[in-house]
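cache lookup: miss for this entity combination. No prior model stored, computing from scratch. Input as submitted by user K.M.:
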Amino acid sequence: MEEQNESRKLTNAELELQADAAGAGEVKRISYAGLIARRFFRQKSAIAGLIVLGVMVLIAVVGPMVCPYDYTEPDFAAINVPPNAQHWFGTDGGGFDLFACVAHGLGRSLVIGISYALLTMVIAAVIGTAIAYVRGWGEKVGMWILDMLLVIPSFLLVAMIVRAASGATGWLVLILGLTAFGWIGYARTLRTMALSLRERDYVKAAKYMGVHPMRIIVRHLIPNLGSILIIDTVLGVIAGINSETAYSFLGLGIKSPDTSLGLILSQGSSAMLSGPWIVLIPSLVLVVLCVSMQLIGDGLRDAFDPYSRAAGSVDDDTDDDGDQK
Amino acid sequence: MARFVWYITKRVLNYVVMIFVATSLTYFLASSFMSPRSNYESRTPRPPQESIEASLDRANLNDKTPIMERYQKWLGGIFTKFDWGMTPQGGSVNQEMSGRIGASVKLMLFPTVLSIAIGVSLGVYTAQRQYHWQDRFWSGVASVFLVIPTVVLAILVVFFAIEINSAAGTRIFYVTGLQSYTGGNVFLEFLDFLQHMILPTIVLTIISAVGYHLNQRTYLLDEMHADYVRTARAKGLTRKQAIRKHALRASLIPTSVNVAFSIAGIFTGAVMTEKIFAIHGLGEYFINAINGNNIHGAVAVAAFSGVCTLAGALLADLFAAALDPRIKMS
Amino acid sequence: MAEKNENTMAADEVLRYELLESNGPKGAPTGDPVLSVRDLHVSFNTEAGVVHAVRGVNFDLWGGRTLGIVGESGSGKSVTALSLIGLLDDNAHVTGSIRLRGEELLGKTDEEMSEYRGTKISMIFQDPLSALTPMFSIGDQLAEALLIHNPGMHKADVRKRCIELLELVGITDPEDRLDAYPHEFSGGMRQRVVIAIAIANNPDIIIADEPTTALDVTIQAQILDILKVAQRETGAAVVLITHDLGVVAGSADDVMVMYAGRAVERASIDTVFAKPSQPYTMGLLGAVPKPHVAATTRLVPIKGNPPSLAAIPTGCPFHPRCPMATPECAQNEPELLPIEPSEGHLVSCHWMDKIREKGLTFEDVYPDLEPLNPKWAEVPRDQRPVVLEVKDLVKTFPVQGKGLIRRNKGTMTAVDHASFKIHEGETLALVGESGSGKSTTLMQIMDLVKPENGSITVLGKNTADLRNNRERRELRRDLQVIFQDPMSSLDPRMPIYDVLAEPLEAQGWKKGDINRRIGELMSLVGINPDYVDRFPSQFSGGQRQRIAIARALATSPKILLLDEPIASLDVSIQAGIINLLEDLQTELKISYLFVAHDLAVIRHISDTVAVMHLGKIVEYGETEDVFTNPQDPYTKALLSAIPIPDPKVERTRERLVYRDGELVSASSLTRRG
């Protein structure tokens, strides 16, 4: 009991530090990103998705280099031939090598899908959280405008813009057109998410410390929407690829001489009897591409939210296992 | 009741303002991105300049007239005669659209009902079997269908239909249009209608059933873990009974909201499906309008879609109020 | 029964001592137990590894008696309860034996268990707000409980019984209330309905899992009374699970204290409180401030934090926190054994014999009690400058109908002409139940804008005179806030360094100064400064609250507003935070505005008290005056409702209930009482 007599003079803080030094409660140290990565790579389907996506990117990047034909130069000696050693994916009615077209189109799809997803998420995150944070009249007006912009299906509005696209810069116009109306729905969802975040005590605490509103949005609100933003960006890539396919198929997006998966489908759909490979191959590529993105998205969702699956939970509120958000 | 009527009135007034602003913005957007003039200028032989100007003026589509002037005139027509303007060719948008709404409804009605029935049942079925192979299988199938582009799905369906046709040696499935029989036999006429309908119905049903399935599954899973389900089990209900009696009811509220929007969607048709199966509905009309620089047609379709969306929103509120005792009507 | 394993046999042997548990209001148990739990183990597979939530728990239940299971979060008490009724998640791995009148319940399927649930065993849950299905009326949910087990019951009989049950749990106008939906009921009313459902089929066992934790203190007293009525009506054995020793004191006959998934002490109610013999129990009882006696000494905290169930220390799980621990304690885990062969008092401690022989008590085991810090005595409080003054503060909110029609129903006055002032270095406690307006008052001060009515003066500056955000920011340096839940008040995405740097950056500090200041702050609140790059989730609840305190102190404020700063912390670490706050006040001469509902803590820490009720301050004065001689009827009712951690006091107390401005005795309100 001698030691205890000595501790009389110690303040509570010093006692606590002593207890800590004794190593009573050693906390596990894994960085947040490390933890997410560990959970992500534990899922076979997510790894499969990542590998397939890697292969797709490889085809899009390396394909045009290794393929002896260019997507702009027809081979008049081989018109509408099925896949063979010379033309790996066959050719279409104009003699264009399908592998060259698909590889180029895949690149287009990826570029459009990824740029669209990134741009919309940035715009949606800033506008959505800002509307949630300002409250009062600003919030009311902001929500009214968002609702108003959502009244008319954005598919129709985008179609009006991208129809003007030309052959050369069509893909740029498509990205801009898709982004111009694509962020609205996401902004609305993110605002709903931010509504609960803005009531968190750490946001209030920052406000009461005199932290600037813009800084609160950038340092607290957006990072805490991080998991949702990342997942939505991955799924947004699928949405972008889908849109490209739809508009190009309708003759509104990518136009010849440029080509894309949607455009190949549109051209092939009229010759389904004479050259089924022309529609089947790009269809398959699109399905594989979208499903692989979906697997990655699902994997990320489960990695961010371990409770989405039966990872196990303890009803007695043990809040200290260090792994939870 | 009076309060309820007042509430609905206020809501509708707000919606009218929204549609007005949204439609006007669409008008300006369409006017700046479409050029009806090019329809005439690209004709061979090119018509005389005066005739081009006269045609454009008649349709109120001349880009040499200031935009505000054209807008006022167009708006005046809508408010005084409910006239949504003319196509560049001089046709009436009202007339062209009215026939197409019917075709869209014919196309959409059955798949909508079917997809709700199939999707919701599958959602309930799979949620109750979470982590079992049934759930993995059906939810896996659904997430594949969720992400593949509609075009790809439709093309694959058409491809297999053609294969079946040629294997059977006779035309079982028609891949375009809604009707081709011209005789007087009612039975044959109906059969012919079914042969046309079946492929687009399959495509549309899959597309929207997938959404219902995955949503219903999430809603039910959320409710299944609610505290009140545990209370129900503590009373002596088995887990299955507690889910069926307590959780299911609550999970159907958000689904009913989605149903409301689907009902509104019946009237606006489906752009991709109509285009691929050559069904002359509203969706196809919109694409044709855009490709044909038909500004008034495109804006009219957009406005009609807007009205349907907001009607769906109103309907969704009423559904929720009817199903959820926490929301009081009076 | 020949196949009983060794553990069970040994447990039976030890549990014979239960029959000697006679030091309570009901004497010793007689007859056969209704339920016997032997060697119960429950584990879960989780992300963090296998969690051993329950590790070899044994106990018996007798009809008409109440067993209080006391423990902190993570002690395994709720998991124990759920395993009795078979409502654990599917991923739970349960072994051992649970026998209901000799019949084994473990291993039964969900369908088989459903025959027992509601009829033989029923349960009352913690959160009444989410325990009832929002889609169905109260009557339907009550009737369902009856009809599941009596499918042929006549409609009129069902209705009659439902009305009877609602009357029993003290719901007025039961006939009309049958058609009401849960959302039309308050939390306390809903908990009454849950109790009515639980007793509908006259069960043998009622499990109440923290039944009053989510409720206000005055409602809590009523619910505990109703639970007693329910027990009397059904003759059931009650398992009362709680972290609050005061709740057990008035309601239980026997007590089992759990720590890290095991029972560490078990005895009759009076024995536990009079002679706690396990160091953890001693600490738990000693660390809580007593609401019924004036504070004279500092609280003695149990150092450290409760262990994570995924990483339970070897040996005695309490040894890292135990002042008596020796290296031997870290070797093997002690068994639960009788401390006195003639009594039913079971203790699990390697030093049991020493404790018994020397009669060691809390004062002996834990470091000596120190007198309360002299509170800056040079200048008398009322002669010091006033740092915060609130005059006639009013805050109203528009009340909106929920759901489809959001019409304004008028306004609700959350704060109604509240006035008070705080001197330098003084602590004012603002007490009230939920909805009393205490937190709103605090937020009104923090907003630093002109209030709807009245005035707020911070350090001589009237908030109405602040012209822009720059002037407000300057004032915020001297005025900081600490929130209730450190989980939510620290951004989970920010390392501690950034958390602590935030207020300093907002005040425009330079990087070097910030670094230095953060080191100082970490030591000041007792967190190792090497941990600056860790994230909040890597700290325990108590440590997180210390970090929140460090952040509030960063700019050396003169006034600290504390919104229920210890309410969400475990009992054993509350004392540490209270001591820290007291140390800081002595050292830094800060003034506290302490918002709380826990009167015991307030009596300990505050100089003056303001009691709020429905937005009004109904009583305002020196702490001791208010506690010993309350004037307002509401204050009297509030004081009479606090559960006191002393069974003898608790049993003889007459509760007062505040009704429409008058006081009535609680016993006159309970029917059939």
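stored under new cache key. The first helix of chain A runs from residue 2 to 6.
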